[in-house]
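Lab meeting, action items carried over

1. Structure of the three-component assembly. Owner: GW. Status: complete.
Input record:
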Amino acid sequence: MEGGGEGEPVQLLQFVLPFGCLMTPLVVPGLSLCFFPPRVSHLSPSRCRKADAAVEMDEMVAAMVLTSLSCSPVVQSPPAGESASRVACDPWKESGDVSDSGSSTTSGHWSGGSDISTPSPPHPAGSPKYSIEALSSPQVDDGFETDSDPFLLDEPAPRKRKNSVKVMYKCLWPSCGKVLRSIVGIKRHVKTQHLGDSADSDQRKREEDFYYTEVQVKEEPAPEAAAAASPTSASAPIIIQQALAKPEALLVEQPALEPALASSALSQSAPSSFWHIQADHAYQVSWWHLPGTGHLPKSCRSISWATATSTLPSLSPVSPACVSPWSFWGVGLDWEIRGACLCSHSPLQMKVRGEAKKCRKVYGIEHRDQWCTACRWKKACQRFLD
DNA sequence: TGTGCCGGGAC
DNA sequence: GTCCCGGCACA
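Predicted assembly:
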């Protein structure tokens, strides 16, 4: 938390989430971060634009929040103006019951309880409310079903789009590239064609989301059917404004991830919030594509975005290298950056302990015989060098 | 409190 | 040189 003095103004910061949408955390001195929930119902750039328009509104909301937030972190049984403070302070409890009357014409996505002192989501990491799944998967019934969800429930309404820009969904499965018109369709496609229809449904659902991306298609007045019908056809009148930063790279890299592997990888990851990767599924960008990630000390790669209560120590420049874009999976939006992350750029900090696994950690005391000699002798570990 | 490892001692 | 461990710094 920066700033920190009492009575100091709330800072509004905005993150661009990997899927390209803004998220506005409320930084209240003395409190943990309270995130406005992402103003996006699905991973749509266009809706993000809409959300952009709502930024101002959010600031107003924030102002209201401030006024109503004269309350301490603890004092939170807001009698009046409650919607605003709720909004700010507990986006996690997105029950969908209220779209706060007071504040807004904005998306009104959030409502909430009053638990300001515990900004972390009430859900375990396994079922993060703001996981991609939550954002995109309509069938998940975990209470995340607010208004957004005409969009969630079906494809975006074309009539809202000017200039005949249409949103379509492109399969990211290696060498597939199928483009479909609807989320449902693409999900079905991914599920049936690539993931298989079998068990493990929960995991599958997440993967479905992972394997498609939203693309904007400028439709020529001409036959639109062609676009959907023959997505791979080069002659199709599609101008894809690919949202992904590096779709090719993605397609190249992704094959390396067996679905199973991918799913496990997904569960470890983190939002690269600080890189304004403009992508619907930018978190899909393999993190080794991020600048400088290839040669990092393990200590940096092991940055934990675990369930956390801690605030972002410094919202500014955290190296891209230190953030795994996978993190969205499984952790929701509450995250923690370990200070050690910053170590990679400071030789002095390189020696920060505890990030790398050591023989002791790896093998355990009971298998001391498998430790490297140095470890056995209580010297600096030679096997798992930092 | 657990862990990593420096410094130093015994052999 | 090898092996061991007291003790400190750190998370």
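2. GW to write a short summary for the group page. Key points so far: The mean pLDDT of chain A is 44. The radius of gyration of chain A is 22 Å.
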